[in-house]
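How a chain folds remains the central question behind the approach discussed here. This step matters because it turns folding into a mapping between discrete strings. The sequence in question and its structure tokens are set out directly beneath this paragraph.
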Amino acid sequence: MTARLRRYFLLLLPLLLTACGDERQSMTVTATAYTSSPGETDDTPDLAAWGDTLAPGMKVIAVSRDLLELGLVQGAEVTIEGLDGEYVVLDKMHPRWTQKIDIYMGDNVKKARAWGRREVTIRWDGERE
């Protein structure tokens, strides 16, 4: 599939799901984990891309920027296959990543490394105004 065709598909997917009567959208993405350690970020490891302050215990994810177009914008609530509860989008990733989320694990580097890299299905409500 060409990059252009893939982009059109990603843009049309929410419309197709809505037309089918499914109010929640879903997508399989690559999921990794990150922490608030200076080695993983910069000199402000608790500060997310939109200016939100992160703290251990928060259920937060960062999303690749291509997912913003699908409604996974700041404040969107997401469920992640295999994890309990809802996670909030409060961070965005470097533009080089696509179809990817990064799950915030506070300052627990061991837990983040144990998570590794997985393919998961995420679910969220349609686009927010």
Q: What stands out?
A: The first strand starts at residue 24 and ends at 34. The chain has two helices and six strands. The CA atoms of residues 13 and 19 lie 10 Å apart.
